[in-house]
């Protein structure tokens, strides 16, 4: 009887949205309390017909673009975006709402065969095609009448379920809620919804969070009752349209040289959210089309950007992306006249000193297309490296935010906190470097060419042998090159063009199965650092961005992870190679405590074989910290970050408090989640980043066994770090002393809960949404270009 009562509440709620459906609603209630079949829905409201983007709803007064988009963004998209949207219900665009939901997970590290591609805007053009791919509607697709739109719409019913069954009045939500990121998805269809509401009455939407306010709920429900009309999106301003036309003309010039250059640019910026300064929040994507500029865009969709397009001539077009901007995928990239001029100078200069010819366009065969050192061999190395280096944060961010907007397989290969530097382009683009790459391109083959292989280990052995051969050849080349130059100097490192380019130093934070990358050297000195040159930067991109298939099978993902080990080690060895020879092996031993024995093979093949004088003078017994200090001074402004707490001039006592908090070590840190966002009223936003320590990262498995909590560290930053906040705190400036004291004394889950009782804005807090809105407002004020919607799928329930 209690279950039937729960269902009755859910079904009776729509009465206030109906004008003449009382009899119909009574019939609906009698259809059954465990399931309602499609035929029963058909009898009441007619057969379902997929809603298309072109459908019009003449009686609608409320529309998505005019009325409900901000509500859906702030209350729904914060959980339903990117590949890890629950039930693949991607709500960052109206088209995703029409597409609906699918119970199959995109992130699946166990599948033996690659999954069907289900990328919104790419892998189907109509709602009917999405239905053929296994997506079911969340909007009513029967008669467009209020009764049907509410009763036969999953979204409407899930909102009503939350209103009928709000969160329990407890600080910690009951165990019936499952907040495990990998929990089983319960993707209710309209036919199974009655059973779902009986068994999980508290699982209305927003899931595990407070319900919408009365005004938000009423507006959304009225919009749904009217048919959930789309309305009209903002038109592209004429000044932006002119820019689009100019850039499409640039990308599609007819020469072989321009076609190869455009292919190179496309394969590196295909994930970018391109914008123009005249309209900075209107975003475009560079896509391949079978039609030229001036004709309707006919998008070419392939699993990877270098896959065969299936047409004789590819055109590169700018497609306006209507999606809401979400932090876990947001990678803004501006196109300006200055950038076009720079690219023309790099790739298309008429200066005889930089002249080169493109004799033929490369094929799209996997063994060629997956190897950029073969595909783009005729493009100058300096142009390629400069192109990537000028926007190095974006280049690295593709690896962090691209196809793996989350993914343990891809990201447990990196430390929780490390710095990245780059070799100077003038030292990477000599004639000798070009010859070395040409001779060793066969050693730089990447797993992407193997696709969804079923033989990961045999392929790994093949690529590991290629890597060994490459490291041996690189050691010999580097030794000879440095000796000829008179010895290793700090000027081997890119200085950001005398500090003018802020991409010269980057900080990367890993947050379990997600990560973030920021300009400058943030936080205290990390355990490790990388130095990246052109070949390494290009391989990272083609391994984990252009060549990574998030829909791929377990073997593809495993092979990509294993190969990334090689690249991490190489970046770390480049850094260690800047230190005195006597300190190199001990430091690598410390970084790789208890690692598999095969690791030493790669170290021996490179570090122990490089024989070149080091002219950098070290005066202390801690050369790693000394090198960090030298790099900070050498890079100047390029080493700075607005995220550092010392960026703004602070009173000595306040700065000392922040430093005291950041210096906490040991047990207390272990109770913190990965990221904690703090709002200090009248001061701003801060993030506490918990950096977990490991003995080594040389194995895909057993990560927990390699944890060393006693070595964990804490970074406190200004602003937002990470796209997935785990906890929210609200601390008055006058409470910082007391907060630090209580934090230092954490020694149990109970003491952590007491800390949160005093300062936290938990997911169960009735004021959660007001706090969320404030955080987003401050985020956009402080970082207008990079700010985007945060994701709440990882908010803790503690």
Task: Outline the fold blueprint.
Blueprint: H1 2-12, H2 22-29, H3 38-45, H4 64-77, H5 94-99, H6 127-132, H7 146-151, H8 154-164, H9 193-199, H10 214-225, H11 238-251, H12 256-269, E1 273-276, E2 279-289, E3 315-320, E4 332-334, H13 337-347, H14 366-369, H15 372-375, H16 381-390, H17 392-401, H18 408-411, E5 417-422, H19 431-440, H20 456-485, H21 496-499, E6 506-511, E7 514-519, E8 528-532, H22 534-544, H23 554-576, H24 581-591, H25 599-606, H26 623-635, H27 652-662, H28 667-670, E9 675-680, E10 684-691, E11 713-718, E12 727-730, H29 736-744, H30 749-759, H31 768-782
Parallel strand pairs: 1-4, 5-8, 9-12
Antiparallel strand pairs: 1-2, 2-3, 5-6, 6-7, 9-10, 10-11
Describe this protein's structure:
There is one protein chain. By secondary structure, this protein is of the alpha/beta class. It has four domains: 2-225, no CATH class; 234-361, no CATH class; 404-640, no CATH class; 652-782, Nonspecific Lipid-transfer Protein, Chain A. The strands form three sheets. The chain has a four-stranded mixed sheet. Strand 1 (273-276) and strand 2 (279-289) form a beta hairpin. Helix 4 (64-77) packs across helix 10 and helix 20 (456-485) runs parallel beside helix 23. Residues 1-15 and 18-33 have low confidence and may be disordered.
């Amino acid at each position: 009887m209690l279950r039937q009562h729960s269902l009755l509440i859910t079904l009776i709620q729509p009465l206030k949205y109906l004008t003449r459906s009382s009899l119909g609603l009574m019939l609906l209630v009698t259809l059954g309390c465990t399931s309602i079949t499609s035929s029963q829905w058909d009898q009441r409201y007619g057969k379902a017909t997929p809603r298309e983007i072109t459908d019009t709803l003449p009686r609608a007064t409320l529309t998505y673009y005019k009325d409900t988009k901000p509500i859906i963004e702030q209350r729904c998209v914060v959980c339903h975006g990117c590949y890890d949207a629950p039930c693949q219900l991607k709500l960052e665009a109206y088209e995703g709402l029409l597409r609906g939901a699918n119970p199959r997970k995109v992130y699946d590290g166990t599948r033996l065969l690659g999954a069907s591609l289900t990328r919104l805007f790419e892998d189907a053009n109509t709602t009917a095609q999405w239905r053929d791919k296994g997506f079911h509607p969340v909007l009513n697709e029967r008669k467009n009448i209020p009764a049907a739109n509410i009763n036969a719409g999953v979204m409407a019913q899930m909102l009503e379920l939350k209103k009928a069954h709000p969160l329990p009045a407890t600080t910690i939500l009951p165990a019936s809620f499952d907040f495990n990121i990998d929990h089983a998805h319960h993707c209710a269809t309209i036919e199974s919804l009655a059973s779902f509401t009986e068994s999980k009455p508290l699982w209305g939407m927003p899931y595990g969070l407070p319900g919408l306010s009365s005004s938000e709920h009423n507006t959304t429900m009225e919009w749904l009752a009217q048919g959930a009309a789309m309305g009209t999106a903002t038109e592209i301003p004429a000044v932006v349209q002119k820019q689009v036309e100019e850039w499409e003309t640039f990308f599609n010039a007819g020469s072989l040289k321009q076609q190869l250059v455009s292919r190179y640019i496309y394969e590196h910026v295909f994930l970018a959210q391109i914008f123009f300064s005249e309209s900075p929040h209107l975003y475009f994507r560079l896509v391949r089309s079978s039609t030229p500029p001036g004709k309707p865009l006919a998008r070419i969709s392939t699993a990877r950007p270098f896959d065969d397009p299936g047409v004789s001539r590819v055109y590169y077009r700018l497609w306006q992306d209507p999606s809401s901007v979400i932090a876990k995928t947001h990678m803004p990239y501006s196109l300006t006249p200055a950038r076009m001029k720079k690219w023309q100078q790099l790739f298309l200069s008429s200066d005889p000193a930089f002249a080169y010819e493109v004799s033929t366009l490369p094929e799209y065969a996997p063994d060629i297309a997956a190897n950029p050192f073969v595909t783009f061999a005729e493009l100058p190395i300096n142009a390629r490296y400069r192109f990537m280096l000028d926007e190095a944060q974006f280049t690295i961010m593709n690896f962090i935010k691209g196809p793996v907007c989350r993914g343990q397989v891809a990201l447990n290969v990196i430390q929780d906190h490390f710095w990245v530097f780059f070799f100077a382009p003038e030292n990477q683009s000599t004639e000798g470097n070009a010859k070395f790459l040409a001779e060793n391109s066969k050693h730089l083959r990447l797993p992407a060419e193997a696709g969804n292989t079923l033989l990961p280990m045999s392929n790994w052995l093949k690529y590991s042998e290629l890597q060994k051969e490459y490291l041996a050849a690189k050691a010999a080349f580097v030794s000879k090159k440095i000796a000829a130059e008179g010895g290793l100097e700090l000027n081997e490192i890119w200085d950001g063009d005398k500090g003018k380019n802020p991409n010269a130093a980057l900080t990367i934070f890993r947050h379990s199965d997600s990560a973030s990358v920021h300009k400058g050297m943030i936080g205290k000195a990390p355990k490790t650092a990388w130095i990246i040159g052109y070949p390494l930067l290009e391989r990272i991109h083609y391994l984990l961005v252009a060549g990574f298939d998030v829909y791929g099978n377990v073997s593809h993902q495993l092979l990509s992870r294993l190969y990334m080990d090689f690249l991490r080690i190489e970046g770390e060895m480049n850094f260690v190679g800047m230190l005195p020879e006597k300190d190199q092996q001990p430091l690598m031993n410390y970084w790789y405590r208890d690692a598999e024995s095969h690791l030493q093979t790669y170290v021996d093949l490179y570090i122990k074989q490089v024989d070149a004088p080091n002219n950098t003078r070290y005066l202390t017994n801690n050369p790693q910290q000394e090198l960090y200090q030298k790099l900070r001074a050498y890079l100047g402004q390029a080493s700075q970050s607005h995220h550092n707490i010392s960026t703004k001039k602070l009173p000595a006592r306040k700065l000392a408090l922040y430093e005291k908090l950041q210096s906490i070590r040991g047990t207390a840190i272990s109770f913190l989640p990965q990221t904690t966002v703090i709002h200090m009223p009248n001061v701003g936003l801060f993030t506490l980043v918990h950096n977990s320590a490991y003995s080594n990262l040389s194995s895909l498995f057993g990560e927990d066994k390699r944890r060393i909590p006693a070595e964990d560290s804490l970074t406190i930053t200004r602003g937002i770090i990470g796209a997935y906040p785990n906890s929210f705190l609200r601390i008055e400036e006058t409470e910082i002393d007391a907060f630090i004291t209580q934090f230092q004394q954490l020694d149990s889950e109970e003491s952590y809960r007491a800390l949160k009782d005093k300062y936290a804005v938990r997911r169960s807090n009735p004021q959660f949404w007001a706090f969320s809105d404030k955080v987003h407002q401050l985020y956009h004020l402080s970082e207008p270009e990079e700010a985007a919607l945060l994701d709440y799928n990882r908010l803790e329930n503690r």
